[in-house]
């Protein structure tokens, strides 16, 4: 190794002359691709991101429901190339909260942001997993009974989120904890409510609809129940998942196989 790129760049950046030559380099950036993608650049991009972008996109860049800023760690919906990401950062997205960056920010620094965002994305082909995705596929619809609740590419149940593309936005570690620790951080969409109507029987289900006079839920057998609000005897919200924890239900190697299968679930390339 001739030099440590981190210190090399740091040294250069600390002298004013370089910012000029960086500006020259970046005029040809579209042709040359991203020239600012060393580990040092990724690190600089991250620092800038934390100061200017994280308040909307979150420190982990996984998005934030309140600001409407999307998760940018997976496949982006608005850009499929580096140049596309560069342009979004440089120009913003019209009529949204995504504003352009300060126009005085050098292109080099915008490229560093692009490098940082790129570094967040998993290249699935470089990730080595212990499990076997084909065995996981079999477990998913067989012994694990996952398909009772989850749909993958149009097959399966509706009692949990569609997992057809779950591998794009979740890391293998997150997929594992979805199975072993399902009650952690359940989104309100999947909370259960327990409603006792005029017959005195408590019924549990997902909230399907509500207006001033009535409330509708769907139970685990996909039956719909409708209640008139003035006849409801009790009502309780349960912020736990209906998904069982598989910690004890499946062996460690079966869980690894499922992680490998889930991680392989992505948009079809064509
Ligand atoms: C004030 C809040 C806010 C700030 C600050 C912000 N963004 Fe955004 N960003 C958004 C919103 C909202 C969207 C989604 C716009 C849309 O597509 O409707 C978005 C979209 C994006 C996208 C496109 C995502 C996709 O899936 O295509 C990228 C990339 C992005 N932002 C990067 C950044 C970077 C880098 C910064 C810091 C320089 C930043 N954003 C700062 C709110 C923000
Ligand atoms: C009784 C229904 C049910 C069964 C069976 C079930 N799940 Fe779930 N699953 C859910 C629900 C509801 C959620 C959403 C709430 C949560 O995060 O736990 C969920 C969430 C998930 C998530 C997180 C998805 C995301 O978008 O964040 C993954 C991954 C997952 N399940 C995988 C599995 C696997 C693999 C199996 C089988 C081993 C399984 N599930 C069995 C109901 C179920």
Give a short overview.
By secondary structure, this protein is an alpha+beta fold.
Task: Give your account of this protein's structure.
This protein is α+β, with helices and mostly antiparallel strands and 270 residues long. It has three domains: 5-121, Cytochrome Bc1 Complex, Chain D, domain 2, CATH 1.10.760; 133-185 and 245-263, Orthogonal Bundle (Cytochrome Bc1 Complex, Chain D, domain 2), CATH 1.10.760; 192-238, SH3 type barrels, CATH 2.30.30. It has helices at residues 5-13, 16-27, 29-32, 39-52, 54-57, 82-91, 107-120, 133-141, 166-169, 172-180, 252-263, and strands at 151-152, 155-156, 192-196, 202-210, 214-218, 224-228, 234-238. The strands form two sheets. Strands 6-5-4-3-7 form a five-stranded antiparallel β-sheet, with no helix packed on it. Strands 1-2 form a two-stranded antiparallel ribbon. Strand 3 and strand 4 (202-210) form a beta hairpin. Helix 4 packs across helix 7 (107-120) and helix 6 (82-91) crosses helix 7. The protein is globular and about 70 Å long.
CATH class of the largest domain: Mainly Alpha
CATH architecture of the largest domain: Orthogonal Bundle
Determine the CATH topology of the largest domain. Cytochrome Bc1 Complex, Chain D, domain 2
The small-molecule ligands in this entry are: heme C
